[in-house]
């Protein structure tokens, strides 16, 4: 091994390090969990993995009881979190979470998208994958647009008049950007997104808002993450993908959804102020839909993932299931 192999090129501890030899060392990851294609009597959910395109895949979840009915179910396209550079739809953290949403509802079909990660594949690659996945799902609405690799669960059980998208943290950011794009471009099959949920959405910007610290913005954690995951970002931290309210960003009034649910935690989350601000700006934008802010105290960033059994997590899942019904 050459001595300079140990040289660190990117130091984004506690997320990751990259070395001069090209190795990316992810310091946070939950273990892979397989899907459960058979009816699982303890949670009443079946899941399976599917390939969407050469580098986009997903895990689909169906309430087992749906298999014995002809009812069509609301569809949730879910984007996992992890700062655009960590985790997976197939890992324990997100498998358990999406599984629990479907289990609790017994009436949602969910597609958890496996998009490509930075830094090996910098943004906007993950946004593109996320859009491809969403269009693949909606292409099941109309025989004319059926994909070659169509999925029987979507054909049999998806109600595309009730299409929802959502995500946690970076996934909440992705869901916002999909909603913006769906307001500009048509989704395959002509499907419209009914609602979106953004949990602890990952937004940032070069200038402090509300109670954010104004010192050393460039050295702030979220600014450092953004430079690693989107090194060529036009506008830097004020790229509209990260800061949706800068001049020149797509019109918020054009959000391609009818309703929004935004979850924030007021303590231990540097994304809190942006989440609250997001709701205020959306309300003032002239967008014609309904937006609801749900604020929890003392729980921290993405407590609903890391502490799924606490009262607030159960409360949030109930609200989410109600929102999607
Ligand atoms: C690259 O360097 C790191 C740190 O020294 C090492 O752990 C890793 O195994 C190396 N990878 C390859 C492919 O040589």
From TrEMBL:
InterPro entries: AB_hydrolase_3, AB_hydrolase_fold, Carboxylest/Gibb_receptor. Belongs to the 'GDXG' lipolytic enzyme family. This is 2-hydroxyisoflavanone dehydratase. One of its GO terms (molecular function) is hydrolase activity. The lineage of its organism: Eukaryota, Viridiplantae, Streptophyta, Embryophyta, Tracheophyta. Residues 76-303 form the Alpha/beta hydrolase fold-3 domain. SUPFAM superfamilies: alpha/beta-Hydrolases (SSF53474).
């Amino acid at each position: 091994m050459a001595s300079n192999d140990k040289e660190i090129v990117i130091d984004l501890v506690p997320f990751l390090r990259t070395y001069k030899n090209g190795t990316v060392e992810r310091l946070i990851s939950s273990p892979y969990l397989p899907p459960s294609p058979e009816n699982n009597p303890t949670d009443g959910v079946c899941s399976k993995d599917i390939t969407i395109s050469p580098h986009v895949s997903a895990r689909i979840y169906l309430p087992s009881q749906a298999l014995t009915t002809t009812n069509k179910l609301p569809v949730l396209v879910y984007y996992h979190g992890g700062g655009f550079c960590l985790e997976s739809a197939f890992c324990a953290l997100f498998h358990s979470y999406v599984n629990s949403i479907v289990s609790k509802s017994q009436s949602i079909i969910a597609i958890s998208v496996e998009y490509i990660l930075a830094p090996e594949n910098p943004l906007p690659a993950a946004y593109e994958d996320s859009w491809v996945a969403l269009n693949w799902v909606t292409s099941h609405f109309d025989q004319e647009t059926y994909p070659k690799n169509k999925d029987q669960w979507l054909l049999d059980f998806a109600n595309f008049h009730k299409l929802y998208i959502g995500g946690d943290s970076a996934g909440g950011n992705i869901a916002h950007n999909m909603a913006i794009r769906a307001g500009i471009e048509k989704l395959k099959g002509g499907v419209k997104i009914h609602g979106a949920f953004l949990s602890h959405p990952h937004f940032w910007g070069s200038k402090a808002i509300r109670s954010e610290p104004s010192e050393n913005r460039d050295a702030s954690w979220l600014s450092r993450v953004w430079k690693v995951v989107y090194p060529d970002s036009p506008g830097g931290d004020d790229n509209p993908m990260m800061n949706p309210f800068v001049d020149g960003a797509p019109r918020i009034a054009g959000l391609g959804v009818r309703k929004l649910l935004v979850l924030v935690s007021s303590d231990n989350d540097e994304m809190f102020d942006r989440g609250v601000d997001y709701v205020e700006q959306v309300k003032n934008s002239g967008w014609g839909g309904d937006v609801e802010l749900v604020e929890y105290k003392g729980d921290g960033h993405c407590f609903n993932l890391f502490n799924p059994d606490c009262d607030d997590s159960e409360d949030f899942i109930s609200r989410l299931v109600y929102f999607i019904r």
